[in-house]
Amino acid sequence: MASKAIIQYSSSSSSSHAIITTYDVFVSFRGEDTRNNFTAFLFDALFENGIHAFKDDTHLQKGESIAPELLLAIQESRLFLVVFSKNYASSTWCLRELAHICNCTIEASPSRVLPIFYDVDPSELRKQSGYYGIAFAEHEERFREDKVKMEELQRCREALTQMANLSGWDIRNKSQPAMIKEIVQKINYILGPKFQNLPSGNLVGMESRVEELEKCLALESVTDVRVVGISGMGGIGKTTLALALYEKIAYQYDVHCFVDDVNKIYRHSGSLGVQKQLLDQCLNDKNLEICNVSRGTYLIGTRLRNKRGLIVLDNVSQVEQLHMFTGSRETLLRECLGGGSRIIITSRDEHILRTHGVNHVYRVRPLNQDNAVQLFCNNAFKCDYIMSDYKMLTHDALWHAQGHPLAIKVIGKSLFGVDVSQWEGTLVRLSENKSKNIMDVLRISYDALEEKDKEIFLDIACFSGQHYFEDNVKEILNFRGFNPEFGLQILVDKSLITISYGKIYMHDLLRDLGKCIVREKSPKEPRKWSRLWDCEDLYKFMSSNKEAKNLEAIVVEDEPGMFSETTMRFDALSKIKNLKLLILPRYYEKGLSTIEEEKFSGSLNYLSNELGYLIWHFYPFNFLPKCFQPHNLVELNLSGSNIQHLWDSTQPIPNLRRLNVSDCDNLIEVQDFGDLNLKELNLEGCVQLRQIHPSIGHLRKLTVLNLKDCKSLVSFPSNILRLSSLTYLSLFGCSNLHSIDLSEDSVRCLLPSYTIFSCMRQLDLSFCSLLKIPDAFGNLHSLEKLCLRGNNFETLPSLEELSKLLLLNLQHCKRLKYLPELPSATDWPMKKWGTVEEDEYGLGLNIFNCPELVDRDCCTDKCFFWMMQMVQLFTISLNCHPSGDSMAWRVPLISSIIPGSEIPRWFDEQHLGMGNVINIDISHFMQLDKYWIGITLSVIFVVHKERRMPPPDMEQRKKERPSLYIPVLFREDLVTDESDHLWLFYYPRSHFDVSNFDELKVVCRPRDLDYQDLDVEVKKYGYRWVYEHDLDLSNLRTMRNKNSSPRKRKYFTIEELETLETLLNMDAQWKQQ
């Protein structure tokens, strides 16, 4: 039997009370009706989802009285599923169960009862008719002489009536697997997480700590807002404790969030990043617009006002990191949240908690002896007891660990499977050291590593940020000559790192250990270290301008405003002979007209020939050192720099995989690529680059080629067509590029008319002055995104064979007359979308500002049908993958824009527009309808070049819900046609926050702030709630055929409304007379 947990249930009318729970769900059902079909499948689904359900034929011991066991099980269950079948009421046991369930729950917590109407109509319960009427008649005939039984029958009648009025599932004539899936999802939502993110080994001793923390939080009080801090040293279990409590009680609150590692988010994304994390989780809105800290503070104060919330802020290391939530108003969260809210802050520094004025500080203590022994045995012996030969040694090991959970785990795993003699040697070292410092305890595991594994540990400990992605780490470690596959597994086995979802994590305490090891011999002389990671240490080293014989890696994270008032000398880099990694932060922001030369000084006469990674954004020199031999380079990134020339064409660079010289305004040419094994080449924004060296055709492994905005590019080698591995090509804005002379056609054509680029997934030829698109495009069968904006062609070749195409962008193609047949989408890509800028415009068809397009009704049909195919494909993919798959909530907006002035007939709700804002009340569907999967909107809009309406009230805009922007590109050199356009888009149910959304607001305005003077007018709009049956292709085809037929309007023109108002006024005056 499962262990019992204390669950707090709260009522708006009474204080919270504690209920001891043994089971998550009690299922009441009539066995002979459903035991071998529906309920059997239901119990299997509950078990597979980790939901502990009571089942009478498995939990009751034979020979015991059934009634007392059932009553106890009902009292110790959190939720109740009642499966009403035809013969349910004929069982007195079922009726007694039902009456007791109602007695325990209906008045205090009716939401805990979930009725399922298996093969009966709910009205039969309400009226006690049909099978239920017959059953009660038989019971009354049987018990008519028993007054007590007759009173019991009356209570059962009342219970049935109450059940019939509760929200549940009527599953008659519906797919049972689908309904079971929905029921399980609902139960999971109500129950909330149950330590799902915590490995079982982390929970040793946790139950008692959670209970102590609950007392500090005073959960029984529902009137005040209480703030509790959790303090303790690194690795002692602050985060684990906070997460355990959060996952236990979060479901009870209107809003809740767990902001993991506030300090890290603040260092990487500043105040805005932390505010967005809090609001994203509380409001479940990834599109929330926060332009500055004041805006974020305002949103926190307004959007969370009076809501009962649970907020956890993990790993706060500075008082300022708490002020950024509140704009220096320390009491803001407490003032805006509703009664019963709780705020939990974890920090190593108790002073921060006291300064912030918490109500109570809970200090996480080391594990007691019993818990320490259990945790150690779990890791050292893989069991819950001490093996006989190791009893004394175990107690010695635990004495050195001093109850520190992480230290116990690390030591235990280090000793797992090791002979007793080696244990003694390890413990002797601890005894001789006599140190109580946890770092010394953790170092035992480090000292037991092989030399290369030690280097891997130190690399991970000292360097974080983007290089914590597993693939990046492995590539760097491989370059460094280590064995990453084997070495990383060694570190995982010894609990020195964890790997989850493609990322590598290391505990702060272990990271500090690694840095201490690097610094220990010369703590005040960074030039003598093997690695540099801190900005201040880097500046100190640069200022010394002395030789660094041991230094192998400089990896410094970006930090906002670093060195903003400091001049950096670079001479010292010329004195590092063995440097293998040089990854420097962005000292300057992109968009500045020039690099501020006063921010650096000195010269760079030498770079280590051992360099494998040279990532130096805004590199301040015009050339790489002449003596630099880049033969070991794996990645070279000098984006935004002054570089004019890269390397001598005779230099071999066999290992280079990624080359990024984007936004290098002074780069005139790229030298001979030779026999490079390049995979990614980024030349975006190199405005003076006039030609690409023909040797690019030899880069057979090249997958990404970005030439966006190379506006001076006039020569394009024809052998680029040999790049059979290319998956992404962007020639956006290359308007001066000459055609490849491989076609006899005199019309300007950028690419030849035969099969090319068999692996191409994303192709961007926007603003290339193209007059014709060759038929070969129809053979790009792997193509997923095709962007042809701003070109001069009139027609497109057939695209019907491009079954994977999900984006076709034809904005500003002002000569386009005909739209070809669109493909039938058959595959939803589960991988990342890459770096194409069109991601922000979503997926679908976009032909905004194409005034010459003919047969617009036909275009509307094609566009709508194609878009709904994508919605169907997305829905199928979503149903086929677990909810943990990131695809479920990171899908781009499915959207299309075409010329048009009529809303398709399919949209059953149509209205006139007012201004640029659309408001749709969704409260009814959010609360009462469980089966819709999304909403599709249709908007007729026009973009005016001059503002006709008053500018938006900024204070009012702050109160708006998140906006959806019109996905079109506005540029000063584009003349926009002031004609009507139809915007279609689909908004999936998963994007709504069920507890907070009662209105969908769409604000139509340009995305780019530079074009706020443009006026967007919504003329009319329509919407439709989408159900899965709506996506049946036969229904869509039927709708498509009917679109052109006359239809009754559901809206009036402005003139008609004015006339109607006049008539109504006249009628009112006549009645008064």
UniProtKB/TrEMBL annotation:
<protein>
    <submittedName>
        <fullName>TMV resistance protein N</fullName>
    </submittedName>
</protein>
<dbReference type="InterPro" id="IPR042197">
    <property type="entry name" value="Apaf_helical"/>
</dbReference>
<dbReference type="InterPro" id="IPR002182">
    <property type="entry name" value="NB-ARC"/>
</dbReference>
<dbReference type="Pfam" id="PF00931">
    <property type="entry name" value="NB-ARC"/>
</dbReference>
<dbReference type="GO" id="GO:0007165">
    <property type="term" value="P:signal transduction"/>
</dbReference>
<keyword id="KW-0433">Leucine-rich repeat</keyword>
<dbReference type="InterPro" id="IPR000157">
    <property type="entry name" value="TIR_dom"/>
</dbReference>
<dbReference type="InterPro" id="IPR058192">
    <property type="entry name" value="WHD_ROQ1-like"/>
</dbReference>
<keyword id="KW-0520">NAD</keyword>
<dbReference type="GO" id="GO:0043531">
    <property type="term" value="F:ADP binding"/>
</dbReference>
<dbReference type="InterPro" id="IPR035897">
    <property type="entry name" value="Toll_tir_struct_dom_sf"/>
</dbReference>
<dbReference type="InterPro" id="IPR032675">
    <property type="entry name" value="LRR_dom_sf"/>
</dbReference>
<feature type="domain" description="TIR">
    <location>
        <begin position="21"/>
        <end position="191"/>
    </location>
</feature>
<dbReference type="InterPro" id="IPR044974">
    <property type="entry name" value="Disease_R_plants"/>
</dbReference>
<dbReference type="InterPro" id="IPR001611">
    <property type="entry name" value="Leu-rich_rpt"/>
</dbReference>
<dbReference type="Pfam" id="PF23282">
    <property type="entry name" value="WHD_ROQ1"/>
</dbReference>
<dbReference type="Pfam" id="PF01582">
    <property type="entry name" value="TIR"/>
</dbReference>
<dbReference type="Pfam" id="PF00560">
    <property type="entry name" value="LRR_1"/>
</dbReference>
<dbReference type="InterPro" id="IPR027417">
    <property type="entry name" value="P-loop_NTPase"/>
</dbReference>
<dbReference type="GO" id="GO:0006952">
    <property type="term" value="P:defense response"/>
</dbReference>
<keyword id="KW-0677">Repeat</keyword>
